[in-house]
Structure to design on (338 residues):
């Protein structure tokens, strides 16, 4: 059996499902970050992500500075999904020996931009030679209040699904980057390319969600909305009903869809790398949480509801018909052009 036959999620389950977590581990593999017992009123969050050239990004349209920024941003999104506050990071860089020193300095400048914007300190790392490509790995620590950590598990039938922000922008931006000859209004192109190259992790929103006590489960949308929904439902042991007509899609994504002859809902459902937050809320607490977020300047949208475990995963199309939801999105072990 090959990795390309089972994918990342199955691999993680096969490896970590057989390993003991050890003393002091509250949550190991299977969520956006590991949760470790610090004692007292806080827990430690620990996450790591790797970006590999020609797997996660292409140098054809990704600058070193943007790459550095994104390498930390994707980790920040994991901390946000757990309701935590980011702290310290270390960086491992594998790079060809003929890479310009100035380019490596630009990469670290991008890391520094993201770090300063979210109160993170870069405290070390490692640099090694790679024969032919660039690989950036960031490990990030954060803290969260004990009893307020957001997990993928915890959703219950009747809870409402919500997402922050808008969906599909990163996938639409990637489409533009891969099709540079497509004529597109400059403002739309700028917004969509930025959504892909410089994602905005929702750390502040995650903190509000955790403090509210109204959120029952959460995950960031990295591999695609449908994949994230399947993760959350699998961890919670529930079914779901998503409503495609309720998905928040920006005017820029809609405009590019018309120009390119693409369905923007496909970008929103399975494009991935939006780094928005997917979360579930008890229905009686939904209005209050919406108001609290709106007062802080954040927009969230209800997109469906949690169903009983035996109900399965469903999506209601814009035509009103319900279909089985087939999770689709990014998987590092399945070929996807970058």
């Amino acid at each position: 059996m090959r990795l390309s036959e089972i994918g990342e999620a199955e691999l993680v389950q096969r490896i970590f499902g057989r390993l003991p977590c050890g003393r002091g581990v509250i949550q190991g593999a299977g969520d956006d970050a590991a949760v470790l017992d610090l004692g007292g009123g806080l827990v430690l969050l620990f996450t790591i992500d790797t970006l590999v050239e020609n797997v996660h990004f292409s140098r054809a349209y990704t600058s070193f500075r943007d790459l550095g920024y994104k390498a930390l941003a994707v980790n920040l999104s994991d901390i946000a999904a757990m309701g935590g506050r980011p702290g310290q990071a270390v960086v491992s860089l594998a790079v060809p020996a003929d890479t310009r020193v100035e380019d490596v300095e630009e990469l670290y400048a991008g890391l520094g931009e993201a770090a300063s914007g979210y109160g993170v300190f870069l405290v070390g790392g490692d640099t090694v030679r790679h024969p032919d490509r660039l690989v950036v790995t960031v490990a990030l620590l954060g803290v969260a209040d004990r009893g307020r950590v957001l997990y993928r598990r915890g959703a219950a039938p009747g809870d409402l699904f919500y997402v922050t922000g808008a969906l599909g922008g990163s996938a639409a931006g990637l489409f533009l980057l891969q099709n540079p000859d497509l004529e597109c209004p400059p403002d739309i192109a700028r917004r969509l390319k930025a959504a892909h190259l410089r994602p905005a992790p929702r750390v502040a929103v995650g903190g509000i969600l955790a403090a509210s006590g109204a959120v029952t489960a959460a995950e960031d949308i990295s591999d695609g909305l449908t994949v994230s929904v399947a993760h959350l439902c699998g961890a919670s042991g529930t079914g779901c009903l998503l409503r495609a007509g309720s998905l928040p899609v920006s005017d820029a994504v809609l405009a590019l869809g018309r120009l390119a002859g693409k369905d923007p809902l496909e970008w929103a459902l399975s494009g991935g790398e939006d780094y928005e937050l997917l979360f579930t809320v008890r229905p009686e607490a939904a209005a209050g949480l919406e108001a609290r977020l709106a007062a802080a300047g954040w927009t969230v949208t209800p997109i469906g509801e949690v169903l009983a475990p035996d109900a399965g995963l469903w999506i209601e199309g814009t035509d009103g018909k319900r279909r089985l939801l087939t999770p689709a999105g990014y998987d590092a072990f399945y070929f996807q052009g970058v």
